[in-house]
């Protein structure tokens, strides 16, 4: 195995870990800050290390440490202890593995070799995601059943019924999308979306198949057990549902698994419906042929954005008492911001003068596409959080009626309409 291949494989695995598991504390922070904003309060902003609060992000790490060192208590009434202990690992593992097939950038060309930018480079990425997204519910069902608690059992039954009703609609919505794309390979699907139709509208899945996109978004919320479809853990009805008997890091794995599953669903939505790693109207080849323009744009825009952010820091993150230790955070944030500008702009200016080799252009395109994917992923995750703190939880009968009587007929009708258009018009 060549050294380049080892580097690419390691990079892909690290990206998968960062975008899934590494985003958990960030998503917990975003969840709390958005909840505070919607409920007209501040959210976490006190926990700090030497005055550094990072906007409340330190609180997320403090909570994770609390779960690690908290007493792991379990009731004596639990009979199937091995299954009880193993169930959270199933939920986490399935959520993490479903993320492994996401393409972070187009195939990277170094010399005469092309490398796939996926942690797990398989051709059946869609089927892999559906398989592991569906398997995750087994951890919830086994955890609820093995807890020997009526509330946990009710949550497990609810989770199973919810997945059955929504998995069918999700899969059927994807079938109509695959008819339009003509492929199940995620990289080919993203490259298809780099084009346009009618010369103006990006050929993103959300524009090609708006009904499929709507159905998938709704079912993705149900798949990830996120509000308004979190009836499996409805605390107002069944205490805590399937994880009522769990504590410490066993509960923490359920908690982390939910956020990883949310990130995986968000990454899948970005890949299928929002152009994946592509910028709007800009495919890989167009990006490569205009790299000089891109570098000039970054050199101009980055200092302007940094200046705006610096003003925001001193306006909103500075305390009246000059001796307050938290003021050091503002000073160091500005220093780090200035350092990042130097680290990014100086090499860009140098390469703008001397030019980039073909390999360097490919690497630069890869970095831009990874950054694009990351921004889209965060925006869709933010949408998940926004919906959670906006809509109330559905009743169980409402959830089942929506799944079987609304989404399933709509997804079947969408397949029929899509197939008819493809056959009649040959598009």
Secondary-structure blueprint:
Blueprint: H1 3-20, H2 24-38, H3 57-69, H4 81-99, E1 108-110, E2 113-115, H5 125-146, H6 150-181, H7 186-192, E3 196-197, E4 201-202, H8 205-208, H9 210-223, H10 235-238, H11 248-273, H12 284-289, H13 291-316, H14 327-354, H15 358-388, H16 396-425
Antiparallel strand pairs: 1-2, 3-4
Helix pairs in contact: 2-3, 2-15, 3-11, 4-5, 4-11, 5-6, 6-9, 6-16, 9-11, 9-16, 11-15, 13-14
Describe it.
- The chain is mainly alpha-helical.
- The chain has one domain (3-281, 357-425).
- It is 69% helix and 2% strand.
- The protein is built from 16 helices and four strands.
- β1 (108-110) and β2 (113-115) form a beta hairpin.
- The chain is globular, with a radius of gyration of 23 Å.
- The mean pLDDT is 84.
**Spatial strand order of the main sheet:** 1-2
Rg of Cα set: 23 Å
Query: How many alpha or pi helices?
Result: 16
Domain tally: 1
Roughly how many Å apart are the termini? 42 Å
SSE succession:
HHHHEEHHHEEHHHHHHHHH
Mean pLDDT, all residues: 84
Structural class: mainly alpha
Range of helix content: 55-70%
Strand content: under 5%
Largest sheet entry? 2 strands, antiparallel
The beta-strand count equals 4
Give the overall form.
globular
Indicate the low-confidence ranges by residue numbers.
none
